Amino acid sequence: MDVLQHAPALTAAEASELARRLFGVSAEAAQLPSERDQNFALHTPAGDRFVLKIANAADDRALLEAQNAALLHVARATSLCPRVIPTLDGEPMASVVVSSGTRHFIRLLTWLPGQPLGAVPDRTPDLLVELGAAIAELDAALEGFDHPAIHRDFYWDLARGMALCRDAAPRIAPPEMRALVTTLLARIEARDAERFQRLRRGAVHNDPNDYNVLVSEPFGSSGRRALVGVLDFGDIVHSYAVADLAIAIAYAVLDQADPLGAIAAVTRGYQRRRPLEDDEIESLFGLVILRLCTSVCIAARQQRQRPGDAYLGVSQEPIARTLPALAAIEPEAVAAAVRQSRGPTPEETLAARRRVIGPNLSVAYRRPLKIVRGWMQYLYDDTGRRYLDAYNNVPHVGHSHPRVVRAATEQMLLLNTNTRYLHDTLAGFAARLVATLPPPLRICYFVNSGSEANELALRLARAHTHRRDVIVLDAAYHGNTTTLIDISPYKFNGPGGEGAPPWVHVLPLPDSYRGQYRRGDPRAGERYAEFARHVRNPSAFIAESAPSVGGQILLPDRYLASVYAIVRAAGGVCIADEVQTAYGRMGTHFYAFEAQRVVPDIVVLGKPIGNGYPLGAVVTTAEIAASFDNGMEFFSTFGGSTVSCAAGLAVLDVVEEERLQEHARTTGAVLIERLRALAGDHPLVGDIRGSGLFVGIELVKDRETLQPAAAEASDVSNRMRDRGILLGTDGPFHNVIKIRPPMPFSAADAEHLAMTLSEILADMSV
Ligand code: PMP
Predict the structure, then answer these.
(1) Predicted confidence band at 383 (pLDDT cuts at 50, 70, 90)?
(2) Of all residues in the chain, what percent carry a pLDDT higher than 90?
(3) What is the reported pLDDT for 1?
(4) Mutate which of 362, 391, 580 to test ligand 1's pocket (most atoms within 8 Å of Cβ)?
(5) Burial per residue of 528-538, b for 16 or more beta-carbon CB atoms within 10 angstroms, e otherwise
(6) Measured over all CA atoms, what is the biggest interatomic distance in the chain, rounded to whole angstroms?
(7) What residue owns the CA closest to ligand 1's atom 8?
(8) With 80 as the cut, is the pLDDT of residue 309 above it?
(9) Binding site membership of 449 for ligand 1 (Cβ less than 6 Å)
(10) Which residues pair with residue 375 across a beta bridge?
(11) Candidate of 361, 477, 638 to mutate for ligand 1, largest count of ligand atoms within 8 Å of Cβ
(12) 490 within ligand 1 shell (Cβ under 6 A)
């Protein structure tokens, strides 16, 4: 280890001259302490400050380039680190040959204000929490960074710490320290070494010691300090992702009266931003101790080489004082404290929910997601990971769309009350809504969900026809109330279901992929409609205008026109459940029934119309509304509330102003085209169908028999989730991959989804 012999030895005057010549900065230079290179603080007469860094001659250019690249990378996500100032020639660094004939690379960085944490005697818990949060911010900013030069054999790399210490411990001079380090190494070897192998890896700063971390002056009445900077990427390496936290803790606990409390405080701050994995929690204390042992071993070696250099030993006295205290702490106690300092994990959240929530409330995906934030077509989990949401059609105009959030919040700040008081938004929203619908659909009722809206639609139909029987499509779902379960074959024929009540008549699902009449049959629509003819005295026919729960089905041409004609001739009314399909999702039309060239008697709306604010609506004709007005009052406490109308109006504004229907049409066309191009020839893919951003991919084990591939569909959706894309499965055989994203879903998202799906299908076929 002759690296110290290559340390540069410039004078301050020489440093000042280099700064002027290479970077055009005229400043006074003052040397800063450093182990293996030379750093000078530069002060310009104008008061600007920089750091001139003169590298060790043994450092290779690639590593210095990696440091600069890392600084540029993290600067995109955090202001905690210095920025690189280019040379007068625009290069990220310069090089000079000094009088001894050796070449040194030189870089100029911005100066960060603040003083080292190491110089602050009172490390309050708040400050330690801040330290943890800053290290997490740094690690998060480093995420995705890589460079060939950081995959290196470096003696400060904790992943090599065991080997280094095993070799060097016997030569630690003071016998008590030698014995302590030897004992601690044996403990780590037995408890942790195997687990270390499993730790996730990534680029780490690798030296956030208390002299590389800067804090502000005390401020405010409490005199707290903020964490303002992290310096010196000289030790950057590809190693355990948790290394920065372990190293920060190793120095933060030095001379602390309550080291366990200090560890818990730092990890609490860290995990607010980046939750640790289980193996990391178990390994953390071992890594903290390993870092301190490594420091003792390296200092012992270096002191043999340069006995007079005080800097080499700066940390050794506090380490010698603190290590025995750390050795007395049970590793299990640390793991428990760290675990507790993490917010509940998804598993813990799930367990808590299972204790107090009905067990048949399901959770999506094998590995449940804990989503904490949404923005447009993206969702973010508790670790900050972003997911492309290709599944949720409720946040129609985008998760947390600011326009809708603002409209609802402003109204809520003012008043949220019911329809028995006059307010202008009720009629205002109703007028805007009926303007999107063809006449004679002119009368609105507002409720709080799709289920309530379908319930009300049935009441309207029954009041109008004085009949009870209902015609439904097979595999349909219309809601969760008692009556709606009775008209939902998806439920009454599914697990726990009790079959159709006598007043419910089920027609075959007009599925032209696997049904009785298929594509290529020009009269498939009329033929499927004929099944309605045998039902006597119906009060209503109810169907999704594009059956979504049934498997993202596009009805064959003329189906609704034919079936509506038959039902009306028999005296029934026609209800279009547009809960999934409304507001431009289909791209070609604002409502799915329009593509079938029909006008229903009652339209049911839900999910998208409040963008997540609970809002359902029923729109009907004046004639049916008159029949319903039979003396019994209709009232819904929350339906049509001031806030729901404000939210509903804002959603309509956004749909129109952002031209989302047109966007769905063009983006959906790209999506279907890319899916067909990339995934279409995988043998599992039986059918790709859809309109706008309403798309289904039906998976089959055999393209001749159409045997449904349900397990495979579930596997695809789970693998997509692991790759950061959220989809679902549906259809009577659960073999249809369902894509119906928030409408801001872009062409680039479509491309990414199709590529990822194609890779997953390819993986599954090997
Ligand atoms: N109709 C259809 C077609 C639906 O998909 C749903 C919900 N999935 C409903 C009605 C019921 O809506 P809600 O869950 O808002 O009661």
Answers:
(1) low
(2) 83
(3) 42
(4) 580
(5) bbebbeebeeb
(6) 105
(7) 479
(8) no
(9) yes
(10) 378
(11) 477
(12) no
